[in-house]
Design a protein that fits this description.
The chain is mostly helical. The protein contains 5 helices and 2 strands; from the N terminus they run H-H-H-E-E-H-H.
Amino acid sequence: MTETISRFASFAQDLCSCVEELPSKAGGAADLRRLRILLADIHAALLRLPEGFDESAPDPEGVSSEERRAIILRLKGLPFNHYREILDPFTDKEAVMGSLADDLADIYCDIQDGFEILKAGHPVGAAWQWRNQFQWHWGEHLTGAQRAIRSWFARCDEFDDD
């Protein structure tokens, strides 16, 4: 496995573990600080994934809808859930309501698809899956979550560098 795929997989596993553990006993701003760093790490690592396609890679089964719903319900315990966002800054469309819980659940589920392919021994296929799903789905959720968390800290004046 190439170093960039391995690095992304490590950050992705950290993020998935965090999502599985949230909300934590520390809660509140501590959870959002942790997410803020993990989302930035995975975003940067994704942009470095190599190009390529593996025709022999299996199609992932995906996370069940029941598991996804359970993740969303648990994540509603974070300091905020709903926020307003503009999905396409190049149109005059109105802002829509975003959900941090939905964002994190969708990111988690799409990343798990790549892990299924990776576990089957197809690192290039996993990288392709992660990149492709980022382009068409979870990238919007990632950047929405990043912006909402950044805005929450700016609004709450709780930002610090620790």
